[in-house]
Amino acid sequence: MTERTRIPHLHALILAGGSGTRFWPLSRELSPKQFVDIFGGVSLITQAVTRVSPLVAEDGIHVLTNERLLDELRNHLKSQPSLGDMSVEYLAEPTPRNTAPAIALAAAYLAGIDPDAVMVVLPSDHVLENGERWERIMRVAAGLAAQDFLVTIGLEPTRPETGYGYIRMGERIATPAENGTTGHRVAAFVEKPDRATAESYLAEGGYLWNSGMLVARAATVLVQLESAGKRASTPDSAPAAAIAAAARDVAAMPPAEWTSVAVREAFEALPSVPFDKAVLEVSDAVAVVPADLAWSDVGSLVALEDVAPADERGNVLAGNVVDVDSHDTIVYSADRLVATIGLSGLMVVDTADATLVAPKDRAQDVRLVVEELRGRGAREIVENRSSLRPWGSWTMLSKGAGFQVKTIEVMPGQRLSLQSHRHRSEHWVVVEGVALVEVDGETFRVTANESKYVPCGSVHRLTNDGDSVLRVVEVAVGDYLGEDDITRYEDDWAR
């Protein structure tokens, strides 16, 4: 795609605040499902940004997340080589209150910076076909949005799926078609059906899977919220006008102030309502564009069946796996050797610090394990052993009371921020490459098998000015070892 394919005033709002509890242990609170890179070699959120970037206006990509995930998300996307120096705006909502307040806040903000803004709201954790058909669908949807429709994207069903909501298409909207792609009014939104009902939808035709994508003028979103609130036709639509008013108030402030205590308290008072329930299901200005695209919402670990082809016994084996006589089973190993014998209908997911074994038909219940672990204060739901950074990555090797040991990899020509820690000292041992270590204004060249001590409170930086990867073992000692114990003075990525 070239510059001429951009759609005027189109802004992408990528929703990236979810924690992906049903995808544990591959998903963690600080490394959620949208960071997973096993579906196509790059993370799902990287795919979402790449998919929409050729279509949007300049500086038209906006990622909305929560305050806790903001730095991790920025680090993750800035570490993706395929995105280069692409412009992405990172926004933190005051507090998670479901999609109606989130979309309302983004709409008010975008309407403020571009009164003609058309927003395409995209989940950050879906697998979706890219290319010419995707672009054609977006152009038709944007055309309908310009006529003040709230436009949903409906996926043409390929099976009697009971895990998705459905959209029943109504009459065609009289607008120019693009290569056969047209828009229709929405006759009804249908909740997740049982199997017999889903089979009847496929036989009857005219039903689409609800993808959760939305295309609309930002100003129209706010008007429709206010209208739904005035009608108050359902309990979920009754607070819609209050949501729009709160969104306008918050969006009038600089985004840096959205997470202040006062704003957070005001936003917490809003009801937690999905945008579908608050607006789409009660509005008479909703359209749908049918989309014949390969798509998955990666809703549970059963989606791992798409990672590799099934063997002759129906098993999907991915990673370092050896199996004997199992059937209809998913086995995934991120690193360690996993051996299975005689399993049937199970899924086994192994990571560096956690292993899950469960029946495939209980995949939706993985969140119950996460809730149990959260009650125990388990760190395994919070973060992975490894984390990408714009300059490279780090991997946790060991952690105990008052200490932790990591490996750090710094890419050629990259450096960490100039920083200090209030609660820990660090000892860096170079195992490969040459490090430039700055401590309180002095710079030291440290080669393999040499080390440098960084006292608690010292202003320091690690740099790799060579042409190969720098690998360092870091031993940190202190009374608090969290990643948020960092004061940055200079940073190449403006964190």
Describe this structure in words.
By secondary structure, the protein is α+β, with helices and mostly antiparallel strands. The chain folds into 3 domains: 3-296, Spore Coat Polysaccharide Biosynthesis Protein SpsA, Chain A; 301-376, no CATH class; 390-490, Jelly Rolls, CATH 2.60.120. The protein is built from 10 helices and 26 strands. It has helices at 44-52, 70-78, 99-113, 132-145, 195-204, 218-231, 240-251, 261-268, 275-280, 366-376; strands at 10-15, 61-65, 89-92, 118-123, 127-128, 150-155, 166-172, 184-190, 207-217, 286-291, 295-296, 316-324, 330-341, 346-350, 355-359, 386-389, 392-400, 403-410, 418-420, 424-432, 434-439, 442-447, 451-454, 460-463, 470-478, 487-490. It has a 6-stranded antiparallel sheet. Strand 14 and strand 15 (355-359) form a beta hairpin. The chain is globular, with a radius of gyration of 24 Å.
Q: Could you tell me the radius of gyration in angstroms?
A: 24 Å
How is the largest sheet built, in terms of strand order?
A: 16-17-18-25-20-23
Low-confidence stretches: none
Percentage beta strand: 25-35%
CATH homologous superfamily (4th level) name of the largest domain: Spore Coat Polysaccharide Biosynthesis Protein SpsA, Chain A
Structural class of the helices, strands and pairings?
alpha+beta
Specify the helix fraction band.
10-25%
Task: Return the CATH architecture of the largest domain.
Answer: Alpha-Beta Complex
- Summed over residues and divided by their number, the pLDDT gives a mean of 93
Question: Which sheet architecture does the biggest sheet show?
Answer: 6 strands, antiparallel
Number of helices: 10
- Oligomeric state of the chains in view: single chain
Number of domains: 3
